[in-house]
Amino acid sequence: MLTKYGYETIGVIAVICFVIIVSAMLINSTYIRYGMISLSIVMMVFTLNFFRDPERITPQIKDILISPADGKVMLIKKVICDKYVNGEAWQISIFMSPLNVHVNRIPVSGTVEYLNYIKGKFLVAYDDKADKDNERMEIGINSPEFGKILFTQVSGFVARRIVTDLKIGQKVIVGERFGMIKFGSRVDIIVPLKWKPVVKEGDKTIAGESIIYEINK
Fold it and tell me: Is 40 noted as a catalytic residue in this protein?
C-alpha cells in the first residue's frame, strides 16, 4: 500500500525514469545503457519503498501515548517547554532514516488546538539544534483524559517538505494517519511530567503501534 502523500512524487519519478530508459536505448555503449537503466530502476524502487504505508494495529490500552513515527529513539530528556504544554516536560526524539516508513500517525486521541509552522534551517535531523533551528511543524492536541500533548515534525538535511493534514478544532483518533516528512527527518514528542517514558535511547519505534509514554501512577 502506498500513501496518498506520495502520489505526486511517485508520478514525477516515474516520468524521469521513463525518460532515462528511453534515452538509454539510444546509446550505443552497452555499459552506459545498462547503467542508466539500472539507475532508473533503483530510483523507482527507492521511491516506492519510501512511500509505502502499511496498516498498523494500535494498542487499545488506557493511559498510554503511541509513537507518531517509525524510527530510532535518539534522545530522551527533561525540558522546559515554553509553548502549548508550558512548563517542565519530557521530550522524546525519534530519528527517521530514508529507509523507514515516513507516514506519521496521531499519538493520542483529542482535539487539535495548536498548529505552528516555522521556517528554518535544514541541519541533519540528529543535530542537537535541529529541534530549535530547523524547519518544522508544531502540533498540539488536547486530550480529554490526559490534557495537552505537543509533537513536532522536524525537517532534516535531506527532508525538504513537511506534510500535515490537520486543522485547528479537528477531532483526531490515536493511530490515524495525519501526514509525513519527505526523505529523512525526526519527530519530537513533548509531554508534561505526569507521563513517563517507557522506551530508552536506541529503541526502535513503529508509528501507530509502539508505546512511548505511559501515565506516571
Answer: no
